[in-house]
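quick one, two chains, predict together pls
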Amino acid sequence: MNKKNKIKIVVNGSLLTVNTKFSLKNLIEKLKTPINKVAIELNDEIVNKKKLNKIYLKNKDKIEIVHFIGGG
Amino acid sequence: MKSDILKITNKKFKSRLIVGTGKYKNMKECAKAIKISGAEIVTVAVRRVNISDRSKPLLMDYIDPKKIMYLPNTAGCFTSKDALRTLRLAREIGGWKIVKLEVLGDKKNLFPDMIETLKSTEVLTKEGFKVMVYCNDDPLMCKRLENSGASAIMPLAAPIGSGLGIQNKINIKILRQQTKVPLIIDAGIGKASDAVEAMEMGCDAVLINTAIAKAKNPFQMAESMKLAVISGRKSFLSGSITPNLQGSPSSPKKGLI
């Protein structure tokens, strides 16, 4: 494996290794996340879900993907 | 009779019972209890998607947000920063503007941190959110929340999940007199009689989670709470008699044999 072509990102607290030139859209597809039921944060900033394919991930990027669950 | 509608901001509701979706055994039980309760608003939490186990069921698969209004809640937030972050994310999930703010300050009793709550209400209102605010029953703080643009004042009856019922009736009565936006009892309801009492005091609605979810029979309790809220509301609207220390016979004296 050529490490030069890989970056490390943190998704919901878990470390993931992905290729360079990997977009947020690629990530959502990889995780099979239902996009209309979640919100996404990249390095503490909320991401516009319409622009996911234009946002490429960098090494050490921190991504949070959240949804609604049961609560009081 | 004039139809009795609950109006929160510009939204209208027939049911005055709001229920939480936490603490149920599973989603199926939760969805069934909510259906029986007749609630038109449910509170929901914002949490991380489980990226390692995608087989886990989603809340939206069981409760359709098009049919029942999701009220995103900041339960579990202890700072204004966390609460604001949570609600901004909630808005991003589905464009919700009506939210429930809950900033806790006491891990043991889950009492709200009113300073952080007030600060958050001001910020959220400026950002266009319609904020329903969980708060303590202090009339001064509640007034300040209302003046900051809160869309509903939601005082606790007793600590969250305690089931102790309304502990400070005097304050709730004072709040009823002074509050112009919907006044909703949030937290502490345990029995149907607690819900009746809140409604008879003139509260606009009650929010119940644990009392239904943790009852031995949550479905029957959901129905019980539904009826309690209807009963209490009708009693409030009916103009009850003034209590009197002396007895007053129900049958006429005339014609007594």
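Chain A has one domain: 3-66.
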